[in-house]
Amino acid sequence: MPAGHRVRTVFVGEDRTQAKVVIVGGGLAASRVAEQLRRAEHTGEIVIVSDEVHLPYDRPPLSKDVLHKDSHDFADVTLKPREFYDENNITLRLGSAATAVNTEASTITLADGTELGYDDLIIATGLVPRRVPSFPDLAGIHVLRSYDESQALRREAGSARRAVIVGAGFIGCEVAASLRTLNVEVVLVEPQPEPLASVLGAQIGALVTRLHRAEGVDVRTGVGVAEVLGDGKVQKVVLSDGTEVEADLVVVGIGSRPATDWLEGSGLAVDNGIVCDNVGATSAPHVWALGDVASWRDATGHQARVEHWSNVAEQARVLVPVLLGQEPPEAVVVPYFWSDQYDVKIQCLGEPEADDIVHVVEDDGRKFLAYYERDGVVAGVVGGGMPGKVMKARSKIAAGAPISDILG
Ligand SMILES: Cc1cc2nc3c(=O)[nH]c(=O)nc-3n(C[C@H](O)[C@H](O)[C@H](O)COP(=O)(O)OP(=O)(O)OC[C@H]3O[C@@H](n4cnc5c(N)ncnc54)[C@H](O)[C@@H]3O)c2cc1C
């Protein structure tokens, strides 16, 4: 068992394969847990409750292909076809938000007032994109988290002339790349010194700036958006340095917050996400959480919430056996995420931090490879358009190898 994993003794050896599992959330985490429970021979009832009307779908394409490809089908992004849920006897309650949980009675309440009992409750409600409260209510202002939001943005991008993107995080940068592919002029506004600086550091951020400038993006760093003006529809954006930018589209990409409002009054511990131990157990018995909404205790004892795709799969791999009263797999997991911007896949392996020492070992003016050093060891690797070389560093990162091992 991975160091520090705690399996609730009440479960071990107990046959939990018939427990009724209710999963709140209709995204990757929900779909993965349901699928893996069935694969692990769980035969009890499984119900997925989602506030979206769509089948569970994958979000990464929403800021990439779905936004800029000429045509696509919703089936391209669904995680599993409807028949999968039918064949596996997984009940989908779509378009049905959970509004409350009663952990004493082991029930949740849905928006239409229905109460649903559970033996085990899994919370996988993801995130809510942040908006700027001071922005007026104008057409042309978008956020991007859901399929419907992606479709709405795509529709307007088709006829837009110039977009201002507020925030150069991963979503902002990917939207910038997609809009450029659609020939929309893009002004990317970021208060930090460089895009992605708080995650990957300013040195790699500068390489990301270079990539976007080469594609014609007007990258404005060290400045924010003060005001959005228009008459029914966006017409102008005023930056914090007083500069005015004519625009007919504004995309707000300033991050998201955990979707936990519905848990108010439930007694569940929430602190920047649902507080969980290192196997996904929350502060209430038989209530679990995973994915973007969950703050799991990591190997060093810290609470950490991760907003990346592969983390969901890793957490599902741990949680599902625990739910069934079994021990979680023993594995050294090297965190991974990616971001596609133009033809460059940015990949990050390990846990690089903005204040690590960054060694850029390859740079051809567009593609790059950098190792991150902390306390003399390889903390991570970040590559732009260097997939093979990024993956090659996995064993060194997993072993906590000295940086000299990899720099050669
Ligand atoms: C545009 C975009 C691009 C991304 N690109 C990448 C990428 O390139 N690489 C990468 O590593 N990661 C990427 N990610 C992150 C990745 O998609 C997430 O880590 C993953 O989707 C998390 O899955 P989840 O199931 O925890 O949450 P989600 O996928 O957000 O699913 C949560 C679901 O719960 C529903 N819900 C919320 N509240 C309730 C309620 N009260 N009742 C019922 N249902 C509710 C939501 O509507 C949603 O359907 C991207 C995310 C986005 C939004």
TrEMBL record:
InterPro entries the record matches: FAD-oxidoreductase/Apoptosis, FAD/NAD-bd_sf, FAD/NAD-binding_dom, FAD/NAD-linked_Rdtase_dimer_sf, Reductase_C
Cross-referenced Gene3D superfamilies: 3.30.390.30, FAD/NAD(P)-binding domain
Names of the cofactor(s): FAD
GO molecular function, one term: oxidoreductase activity, acting on NAD(P)H
GO annotation, cellular component aspect: cytoplasm
Entry keyword set: FAD, Flavoprotein, Oxidoreductase
Domain FAD/NAD(P)-binding: 20-316
Ranges where the Reductase C-terminal domain occurs: 336-404
Database matches in SUPFAM superfamilies: FAD/NAD(P)-binding domain (SSF51905), FAD/NAD-linked reductases, dimerisation (C-terminal) domain (SSF55424)
E.C. no: 1.18.1.-
Secretion signal, residue range per the UniProt entry: none
Name this polypeptide is given: FAD-dependent pyridine nucleotide-disulfide oxidoreductase
Source organism (scientific name): Mycolicibacterium chitae
